[in-house]
Amino acid sequence: MNHGATYKAVLFGPNPIAAGVEVELEYVDGKVQEVIVLESVEDGETTVRTYKRGHHTEEPFPYRFVDEESDSETVGGEVQN
User: Fold this and answer.
1) Over the stretch 23-68, which tens digit does the pLDDT of each residue have?
2) Alpha-carbon distance 75 to 81, whole Å?
């Protein structure tokens, strides 16, 4: 275990979303975060992705993609059913 204020994690999700991307996260109250929420802004559109920690117990800790929210008007596709 890392004795600093941060630890390493690897994000996994549907390609190309976080296909094994390694990130550094902060401990919360001295513990590894169970759920992380990452927000990114690209071309003026905000995307929020949620990841849940896997069962692996050593660094880098794996996190699996669970949900995505976007303020994009085309997130549902441009063709209507």
Assistant:
1) 999 999 999 999 999 998 888 899 899 999 998 888 999 999 999 9
2) 14
Global pTM reads 0.75
Helices (H), the chain: none
Residue 50: is it exposed, middle or buried by C-beta count within 10 angstroms (0-12/13-18/19+)? middle
Strands, E assignment, 13-75: 21-26, 35-42, 45-53, 61-70
Q: How far is CA 65 from CA 15, 17, 33, 50, in A?
A: 11, 8, 14, 6
Alpha helices of 21-70 — where are they, by DSSP H?
none
Q: How many CB atoms lie within 10 A of CB 63?
A: 26
